[in-house]
Amino acid sequence: MSIAAKFEIEYLQYLDQDGKETGKELPEFAKDLDHMVELYKLMVSTRVFDAKSIALQRTGKLGTYASCLGHEAAHVGIGSAMRREDSLAVSYREYGAQLYRGVKPREVYTYWGGDERGNDFADAPAHDFAWCVPIGTQCLHAAGSALAFKIRNEPRVAVCTIGDGGSSKGDFYGAINVAGAQQLPLVAVIVNNQWAISVPRRIQSGSGTLAQKGIAAGLYCIQVDGNDIIAVRKAMEDALERARSGNGGSVIEAVTYRLGDHTTADDARRYRGEQEVKDAWERDPVPRLRKWLEAKGKWDDAKEEAWKAECDDWMDNEVNAYLETKNQPATAMFDYLYAELPADLEKQRELVASLDRK
Amino acid sequence: MAQITLIEAVTQALAYEMRNDDSVVVLGEDVGVNGGVFRATQGLQEQFGEMRVIDTPLDEGTIAGLTVGLAAQGMKPVAEAQFEGFIYPMMEHIACHAARMRNRTRGRITVPAVWRAPWGGGIRAPEHHSEANEHLFTNIPGLRVVMPSSPARAYGLLLAAIRDPDPVIFFEPKRIYRQYKEEVPDDGEALPLDVCFVLRDGTDVTLVTWGAQVKECLEAADELAEKGISAEVIDVATLTPLDFDTIAESVTKTGRCVIVHEAPKTAGFGAEIAARLSEECLYSLLAPVERVTGFDTHIPLFRLEMKYLPSVERIVEAAERTLAAS
């Protein structure tokens, strides 16, 4: 028998679910423990932010919100590996990555609180995409960004994130396909949290891993423990370096678990068992890194308490800023439609202005 | 000065703007070595290289999504949909992203892109190669929908579309791609968008149309003139945002209007113009507004397609009905 093609997918993990090293030599960044403490702190603040968001929604102060509970290692790992000049195209729950890149919690609240101004990031890179609700479409925007970087010969990388469900979409395949064909600097991260609303991973695809979808596209592919931030960050660093130096794109599958509901409009108890969720909590990424840092003597209860209090103050401040934001004038619906308002829309805008004055 | 066809005017505009602006890139299926199936991009890859005239994988969704991403990162992409009947997989990126990005981000990210597509029937093509579907785009806010009807307007409007800071759908009436030649100076002068062109002055009836049907309307105006009826012919050119003032001014003068388009009648863009006339010009009308359109059917395969498309005869009859009414 002759073989036309063969492949294998590496699985990367540095910390097991108890925060113990698996024996693999740690990458350079992980030897900088102060930096690891910073990453841990952002994972915690992301979780505090998330809980605050849900509380806001439950009290009628926020619209539908997609929680990131359980994804903190994956998201912070992605964001912290990137350079500012790289571009990020997310779906809608990758807050850990976005907070790292400078998106403010008040901006998240503003957008999910029904106001487009939340997408006009003040501090995050202006070239990062907005939240992208149509599933998978952001992958092609990232591929287009990567093509722009390649055309202009800029050492920049376009990163997109997508879920296990999203990896079923044509846009995901289209993006990795063109990235392979054109050697684009694209890193596509599948944050496999096992559930696409109510549909489990097994129904999405017969593919043994989701990472291997990139093999057919000619990309470098790896699966990592998405609850181990060291593994996510390392895979990201390697993929970014490879892309930046013109050696092609990657697909990274970060295996994690959606500990919360899909969104605040969802009730996951309708479709998945308690035991499965209980088991997933055993793999929670936050205590895993905490245990590791504690064993290194870099973290303790007092620090935890002090940091959580600081996060609470931060989020309270952000929530207040959000709640104090006045509505845009109703005419704002016209004012960003085109660079200049077309003459034919002036009457409609005047009508809205007059209704707004009533 | 060379005489050129409409399709050559498209090529001339693309080449001009690629020389003029390094951020302009062309992408699509077969646009590179082959120069496009209609030769709209003929010679461009030789001139500008593979990084600016990009043959993509055969996936319209990929082309559309890449276009959004390119534009969002500061390029000015001109994407080609090989035929208007293949534009449907592109619509998600056009409607959900290109048209909304400026609004979604309060102006932080914009999509100054053009989607070109050969449009319309009458070239004896297979199924899906003869559609008139401009009305599917005209009620998407944030887009411009533009259709030239002559070599000079193809050149000037395409330059304007590429330079426009917002996304433009540029439908090229393929039936008249090579119908006639005219002098089109390669001077980089754009024509205005959001403006209707009055192609022929008249006093008795206004014929409002766009794209390939401009030809039939001008011929109908000639026939009507022989019968002593003076028809004004308006090429809408930019369907949205609509220059309704030019149409209203004409119909206020003539009191009669025939709207002509290839697309199906119901909810075609002619319905919008007729509604606006009833809202804003009712008391100037001397006769009911007539529509001469494709039928509410699929355009038939080519043995019957000319029975579907508006003909000079149908346009003349409709104009005469408006005259008979008053």
What do these coordinates show?
The complex is a heterodimer of chains A (358) and B (326). Chain A has helices at 28-31, 33-58, 72-81, 95-100, 105-112, 137-151, 170-182, 201-204, 229-244, 274-281, 285-295, 301-323, 332-335, 346-357; strands spanning 10-12, 87-89, 158-163, 186-192, 195-196, 199-200, 220-225, 250-255. Chain A is of the alpha/beta class and 358 residues long. Chain A has two domains: 10-327, Rossmann fold (3-Layer(aba) Sandwich), CATH 3.40.50; 329-358, no CATH class. In chain A, strands 1-7-8-4-3-2 form a six-stranded parallel beta sheet, with helices on both faces. In chain A, strands 5-6 form a two-stranded antiparallel sheet. The mean pLDDT of chain A is 97. Chain B folds into two domains: 3-183, Rossmann fold; 197-324, Rossmann fold, CATH 3.40.50. Chain B is α/β, with parallel strands linked by helices. In chain B, helix 1 (6-20) runs parallel beside helix 7, helix 3 (60-72) packs parallel to helix 4 and helix 8 (213-226) packs across helix 12. Chain B is 36% helix and 19% strand. The chains are: A alpha/beta (358), B alpha/beta (326). Chains A and B meet through helix 6 and helix 7 of A and helix 3, helix 4 and helix 5 of B. Chain B: Its cofactor is thiamine diphosphate. Chain B: Residues 4-179 form the Transketolase-like pyrimidine-binding domain. Chain B: Keywords: Oxidoreductase, Thiamine pyrophosphate. Chain B: This is Alpha-ketoacid dehydrogenase subunit beta.
Salient structural properties:
heterodimer, A: 358 residues, alpha/beta, Rossmann fold, 2 domains, 6-stranded parallel sheet, two-stranded antiparallel ribbon, 8 strands, 45% helix, B: 326 residues, 7-stranded mixed sheet, 12 helices, globular
